[in-house]
Specification:
It contains 3 helices and no strands. By secondary structure, the protein is an all-alpha fold.
């Protein structure tokens, strides 16, 4: 080897960092994120149905939860890409489905429609 080239040994700190598979410190526990996502979306979707019904009648009762459900589903889709907030996205989608089911059950009950007989 020529004298002007130093013989360098790779240092341990110069190596690639180890991958971190643990949950970030700022993220909530996955189960709590899921429950929070459910509660948040159910309250917002059902609340928008009641507020829409008070403000615009039957049209508001149908349109307001629909718009809120679409917005919540889009928020869940954006959160799905983040590993730390994937349970929150699953909770939001579960909550939207639960809220739509409850909203439709209320609509059927209040409209006087008889199902199955």
């Amino acid at each position: 080897m020529p004298e002007n080239e130093p013989n360098e040994v790779p240092r341990p700190e110069a190596q690639a960092p180890m991958l971190q598979y643990s949950r970030p410190a700022h993220a909530m526990a996955p189960a709590w994120q899921w429950v929070l996502g459910i509660l948040l979306s159910v309250v917002l979707v059902l609340g928008s149905g009641f507020v829409g019904a008070l403000g615009a009648g039957l049209g508001g009762f149908v349109v307001a939860p629909l718009i809120t459900s679409v917005v919540m589903a889009l928020i869940g889709a954006n959160l799905r890409d983040s590993v730390a907030y994937r349970p929150m996205a699953a909770g939001i989608w579960t909550g939207v489905a639960l809220a739509v089911l409850l909203d439709e059950l209320c609509w059927v009950a209040f409209s006087g429609v008889r199902i199955g007989g």
